[in-house]
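Question (not urgent): is this output format expected?
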Amino acid sequence: MSDTEDAPQIYLVTPPEFELSVFPDRLAACLDATEVACVRMGLATADEDRIARAADALREVTHARDVALVIDSHARLVSRLGLDGVHLTDGSRSVRATRKDLGEDAIVGAFCGNSRHDGMTAGEMGADYVSFGPAGATELGTGKQAEAELFEWWSMMIEVPVVAEGALDLDLVRRLAPHADFFGIGEEIWREEDAAEALRRYASAMAG
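Got this back:
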C-alpha cells in the first residue's frame, strides 16, 4: 500500500458483518470492476474461528488479484492468517510495538480520529499510513468530524500517506481528493444493491 502522486486510491473496508456464502463474490466483483489498493477486514466479532474463516475466504479473493488484505485491530492474527498487515484503532498508542512484532514488511496503519498530534506521532513511530475520520457529518460515535482543513494541512506538511474515511459521499470525495492519498470506502457501497457499480462512482469522483 503506497502513496501516489496521482488520483487517490481506494482502500476498501468490509462490512462489520457478512455472510461467507455471499460476500466473497461481492468483493471479487468490486475488485474486478475498479482498481483497489487494499482491503481491510473489519469484522465486529471477537470469535477467533469466525475471523479465521473469513480471512481465509477473503485472502483467496484479494491475493489472487494482488490486492493487500489487512485486519482491523487483531495484530496477533496477522502472521497466523497470512494477512498483509493491521489497521490499529487506538491512534498512535500501539504502533511502535506492533511494528516491532510484525516487522518492516507488514502494513501497519493507524486510525487517529481527528487528532493531528496522534497522527504525527503514529507516523514517527512507523505507521505506513494514518487514517482520519469520520470525514463526513455523522451522529455515530463521538460525532467529532475530521474536517477538510485537517486533510489540507496534512497533505502540505506531512509525507505519511493519509486515508479519509467515514460518512463519505461523492461531493465530499471530490472536495477531499486533492488532499487525500486514499479513501476508506465501506458502508457507502455495501448498502447498495450493486456494490461494484457504486464503487465505480466513487472511483470516478476521486479521479475528478
